[in-house]
Design brief:
The protein is built from 8 helices and 6 strands; from the N terminus they run βααβαβαβααββαα. Strand 3, helix 4 and strand 4 form a beta-alpha-beta unit. Bound molecules: 3-methylbut-3-enyl trihydrogen diphosphate (2 copies) and magnesium ion.
Length: about 240
């Protein structure tokens, strides 16, 4: 059984964009101000990614557990996501970026679900970068749903299971998983897909994160030796052929 190997110039980078609330608190601002600043960081990172060899960028914007937050913060986040889609769409299309949103849609405010569908449709031809934004996403739920969708008697093989997950926009092996904000945990993000991901935890709070931080993380990633349980990269690649 093989792992998906990304070519070095089409990496899959996933980011847990954490630290907006603390960024705002440090400035004596309300938490939504941090989320607003976080949206600007998303733009910087999306624009830096293709030049750095990123083919797929998956961003964790709102977890299924984030519904536990106060209603006004949730409403501010949903409003910002909607604004992001509306204001960035033309720019995404111009930059050859294909947008896809992962996660549940049935609990989102109506307008947001419509904007997502429109943004996905308008950007399908983007070929420079696959941008996936995870909204109301839980990796455990994605896995449980994939299992529930399996109708055959025998349990799915790994590659079949990957395809089941892929139907929901997931299933693609992550090369590099970055978490900003200093916490060292996954918080239910891409659990199956990160089986062999290189992990990078940075203290920078998300609103301060820029293209240079992404470049640093990728440079560090490129110095690591990935073994996938074997003895070195080269041997794995040969075995996989
Ligand atoms: C990440 O920042 C954004 C979301 C989870 C939506 P936080 O809001 O979690 O910021 P901190 O962790 O409280 O600083
Ligand atoms: C993870 O951050 C979710 C997102 C970044 C969208 P959280 O701030 O929600 O995670 P925990 O609660 O610290 O684990
Ligand atoms: Mg947080």
């Amino acid at each position: 059984v093989t792992n998906e190997i990304s070519s070095p110039d089409r990496l899959h980078v996933a980011i847990i964009m954490d630290g907006n609330g603390r960024w705002a608190a440090h400035r004596g601002l309300p938490r939504p101000a941090g989320h607003r600043a976080g949206a600007a960081a998303v733009r910087r990172v999306v624009e830096a990614a293709p030049e750095l060899g990123v083919g797929t960028l998956t961003l964790f914007a709102f977890s299924s557990d984030n519904w536990r937050r106060p209603g006004d913060e949730v409403a501010a986040l949903m409003g910002l996501l909607r604004r992001y889609l509306r204001t960035e769409l033309a720019r995404l299309v111009d930059n050859g970026i294909r947008l896809m949103v992962m996660g549940r849609r049935d609990r989102l405010p109506d307008g947001l679900a419509d904007d997502i569908a429109e943004a996905e449709q308008c950007s399908t031809r983007g070929a420079r970068l696959d941008l996936r934004i995870a909204i109301d996403y839980s990796s455990r739920d994605a896995i449980a749903n994939a299992v529930a969708g399996w109708r055959h008697g025998t349990p799915p093989q790994r590659d079949e299971f990957r395809r089941l997950l892929a139907g929901r926009g997931a299933g693609h092996d992550v090369d590099l998983l970055i978490r900003s904000g200093g916490e060292k945990r996954l918080s239910d993000f891409l659990l199956w897909e990160s089986a062999y991901a290189e992990l990078c935890f940075v203290d920078v709070l998300w609103p301060d994160f820029g293209g240079d931080d992404l470049a640093t993380a990728i440079a560090d990633f490129r110095r690591r030796e990935r073994r996938f349980g074997g003895l070195c990269d080269v041997e794995h690649l040969t075995a996989a052929e």
